[in-house]
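A note from the maintainers: we've had questions about how concatenated examples are separated. There is no special marker in the raw files; a new sequence line simply starts the next protein. For clarity in this README we add a label.
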Amino acid sequence: MERPAWAPPGIDISVPSVSRIYDYYLGGSHNFEVDRQAARRAMEFMPGLPKIMQANRAFMRRAVRHAVSEGVTQFLDIGSGIPTFGNVHEIAHAASPEARVVYVDHDPVAVAHSRAVLDGDDRTGVVAADLRKPEDVLGSPEVSRLIDLERPVALLLVAVLHFLEDTDEPYEAVARLRDELAPGSLLILTHASYEGIPLTEEVASGMVGVYRDIRNPLVMRTGEQIRGFFDGFELLEPGLVSMPDWRPDRSGPLADGEAPEDPYAFSGFAGVGRKA
């Protein structure tokens, strides 16, 4: 198997990665054939997966702009994946040159590529750490350099919590992060669910099986279970909703890239909460 020049040394390119699969769904170029094969297998069960990812990104962009409009200019993006066009730092810096962004991921490819893309940008940082160990995130030099925890922070957990099983204690991880954030901080979250998918659960579970087979189990939680991550946060209007339904940008034809007419875009949940 030919090794691309951008692949960090020591990476096993025969093992699929969820961040590179996501990059493939979004039309990116930082993925290997093994990732594309896994993505295509998942799409055999759920052909609308790229539409879901596009709706996810569009929600994230709207939420980041909303955070800046509320005066929140510090962003901690955990499970950030591989930077693609329209990522958090681009949206945040366009809205406020003062914005500071720290990306966190445990995938070495995502970390290495993020560092290459952001080289020389002193308003952004990259941390190799895992959401399961919040203390590693909060204690990192990059967070200390860029994020003032005495001021409000926008914590992004976008399409990441569904890769934590209950035994990983995801609610406890979010609570530990929440407790370190200043009042007025925001939690920006999306999560996969069988609710909203235009397929039977039986068919959709085939896609879930693909992720299980590549040792990245995808945990489909209910809306009520997902709401539990907002414990200690006040959900902002319109609450926990499908991604295109969270404050849609209707200033132009599909102005923010979402495709409301595609039923797959309404799969899963999105929400933004504010810490009191």
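[label: protein 2]
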Amino acid sequence: MGRPDQLSRGAQAARLARGAADWLLLDAPGQDRGDLSLYHGLAGVALALHEADRYFGDDRYRQAVSRGADVLSAQVDSLEDCSLYFGLAGVAVALRALGRHAAADRALDRVRDRFDGRRWNAMSELLMGNAGIGLGALSAGDLDLAVMAVTPFLTSADRTRCGVNWAVRPSPARSHHIAHGTLGIVYALAAVGDAAGRQDMIELALAGAADVAGRDEAGQDGFLVPHSDPPHRPDVIERYSYGWCNGPAGDAQVFRLLARITGDESWAALGDRCWRTVRDSGLPRRLRPGFWDNNARCCGTAGVLALACDRIVERGDDFGFANLLAGDLAARATIDAAGVRWSNFEHRATPGDLQPRAGWAMGNAGIIRELLRYARLSQGADDRYAVPWPDHQATGHDR
């Protein structure tokens, strides 16, 4: 593929991202207004607009980021949830990144005060529990809180056939992937352990990763692990997924981190196997109801694009699959005078087209970040995000 063609693809992605950021400036309609969280709400939106400001140098975005930081700062004392993706830890990440250090410290102090010695709520995983709070604290510069959050995993691990895992929810099911399962805990233990010089945490993280690796059903050329065992809510949750949250696109992110920390190339090889499975799965095509209905960062095309761009930088991949993903996002965008946005699809609902959302997980904010990074790579520019994400290891250029 010639360089001019790749430059053109990058320019198209940047135009989409700009239209998506403009839609956010309109106080994008939807069910998320008033939500402050990193997942669906203002914290994630503010970071995406910060990304857009860094790329375009548009004062409209800068002013919107400042207004968002003001709101987040003012609301810290009213938040009760402490989690990374739905509460104070994620808000602290955003506030620290946006230079509101006193408010970030206040948020982290509230998180610390609500710790009962073991956990903050019934969940202990990355989105809602200890693992995510540890990563949020680490990202926001509070290593002591990060260590405090992940230390309970040292005594709550259960031995399995190939390693260890943890009970992440009150029900019996053991989940395996990054969003709600073992690999999210592995990521937190490894990242915090590496930062704190805690080899015991790193060793336990490796045992957790070994448990998940031992559940692979794809064989030596791929990597595919079920959502959970025994199956958690099998009436509504697919047994196998391929995105960031519960599939090999997210699994590979954990293996990237372990390869970097340990220097053991076998973890990078597992990441390669994950990538082969993702590429061979058929996504982003909608092969059947429920197979691939999401454009967004958490469990859709943008989250896979994040890994594709990591691999371009770290593994020397060509742009072929990244171009396919970016092209699919372009084809599925709604573009009009209001800007650009994406509707996900729910095959179990009628009508199936869902209302566009603003936030990081299921909406514009997460897609903007990944389109702009793809645009920078396509232009031969620095691949770094304006703000690294707590559970997305930076490439070598970022560190």
